[in-house]
Hints:
The complex is a heterodimer.
Chain A: H1 2-17, H2 22-43, H3 46-63, H4 73-91, H5 93-103, H6 126-142, H7 146-157, H8 162-169, H9 173-195
Helix pairs in contact in A: 1-2, 2-3, 2-4, 3-4, 4-5, 4-8, 6-9, 7-9, 8-9
Chain B: H1 2-16, H2 22-34, H3 36-53, H4 64-89, H5 91-119, H6 130-133, H7 148-157, H8 160-168
Amino acid sequence: MEKRAADLDDTLIRKFMSGEVEAFSEILGRYKNLVLNMAFRFLRDRTEAEDVAQDVFLKIYRSARTYEPKAKFSTWVYKITANVCLNRLRNEKNAAKSIAYDRQNPADTNSPLFVGLSPGRFSPSEELEKNERLAIIHDALQCLPAKQRLALVLKRYDGLSYREIAEILGCSPAAVDSLLQRANGKLRKFLEPYFADRGVSRKGPLS
Amino acid sequence: MIRKCRRIQKQIPAFLDAETTPKIMSAVKRHLGVCSDCRQFLAATSRAWELMAESEKITPQNDFDALFWDKAREFSILRKSRLGRIWARVPIPAIAAVGFFLGIAGGFFLGKAAFIDKRAPATQAVRPPINGIFPYLDTFADFPEDSVGGAYIAVATQPSGSAGKGGDK
């Protein structure tokens, strides 16, 4: 199935490279959800995610003619998306915000991130619990350093293997393992105060 | 035990993803069989991951494609005009490049030639033997009498008395 998809990607990109602009419409249709959601999970801002997705497809459009099928086309798309997201984060104020969060003690529940969410003010109801937890997880994700966040998004949301993530981030699978371990550790520290008293292990709700 | 649990819990994400070595996999499995804390940790981890997997997915706005094609068209126009501009500039850099390389090549050959001239051993000017010019001049007496040299020799070789006598007469 996956091979068939890869073959179709190859066919489409070859068609586009040979001048069939319509083939790009199909590429756009196949990948826009993937790119948009990856950007959204990384940036947590719909408008920015749409902007990033547009940028990504424009980059693909511009450089598709020079594309060399060394790796899977989807990996190439992920790589471009990752780079655009990282650049976006670097260029915009988000970077400063993220750095400020990174420098804070991750378990510091007085940080701006947790205002309104601290265990004392948190009043869970059964039906909202799941959404609340999700919101907390996503907010906690935003406090991770960019590369760790990207690795976690690619692993948890897109289900990529360590090898694929390594290819996208330009590092070794061992480095990806270490990135994910650190990301999981930080998330656990962030989330412990919120999940510990809600039926999830006190030892660590999320690794 | 706590230290071991910490080590095992570090490996649990990779264990759940089956992204670790068979040796570590079996060590984690063995430990989970005897440690309820780590089992609980594993359950919590996979629950959190399930929760993340259930998170909302957004869909692109309706005008996403149209917006993209607008940008792509803009890019194509821009590219064409940029290419035109680049082509318009091509001759000057090309000529400059050719001139530069010709200069370097010419300089190289000229320099080489000049260098060789300098380094060539100076040929000593060979003085022609005096006999080569005046092969008949073996002695002073060989100067022709009507030549300046001959007159000088004649005066110089005259006995001093005869010179005086002649003058007195």
